[in-house]
Amino acid sequence: MHRIVAQGSSLVAAGLLATAGIAATPAAAPVAAVAPAAATANPTNPVTHLAEVESAVRAWAAAWSARDVERYLAAYASDFTPARGQTRERWEADRRARITGKSRISVGIEGLVISVQGTSASAQFRQVYRADALTETDRKTLELQRVGPRWLIRKESAGN
Fold it and tell me: For 102-152, what is the HEC assignment?
């Protein structure tokens, strides 16, 4: 299993780069400065997977913030199971209504921690959600699965 902490737009090693065959660097150094170019292009390289998962999580948040419902829903795997026993169809209808019903949405990701094991990944972070007059901060976990070249959300949970 590989674990990395993403701060801002930089990926920061948390004791895993040595296991990936790459020297660990100070917390402020981005992975791109650490990993050889050939390693970042290798789809089986753990650092590549970590960067891809971070990109997928940030793209999901950006789609939500842009109120782009189609791109937001496309971040979820076909076997995504909504919480509280909802059907996928009902969940999608609820998400569409909630997203398009807001005049402004901002979804921030803080303290992102990503774990990758094979074709599965977990992304844990503090989500700062702002919409119209509402602001909520909560811990969120996204469980992702690699499907072809993409990392898609299979499960999500929230809680303090």
Answer: CCCEEEEEEEEEEEEECCEEEEEEEEEEEECCEEEEEEEEEEEEEECCEEE
Token code pair at residue 29:
């150094």
Confidence (pLDDT) at 78: 95
Cα separation of 2 and 107, whole Å?
26
Low-confidence ranges of the chain (pLDDT < 50): 2, 6-41
Looking at residue 43, what is its pLDDT?
Answer: 58
Across 120-141, b (16+ Cβ under 10 Å) vs e yields ebbbebebebbbeeeeeeeebe
CB 5 within 8 A of CB 15: no
Q: What is the pLDDT of residue 85?
A: 86
Beta bridge partners of 151: 146
DSSP string, 7-32: ETTEEEESS-TTTTTS----TTS-HH
| DSSP-derived 3-state class of residue 34 | helix
Global model pTM greater than 0.85? no
pLDDT of residue 34: 29
User: Please, what's the largest Cα pairwise distance for the chain?
Assistant: 48
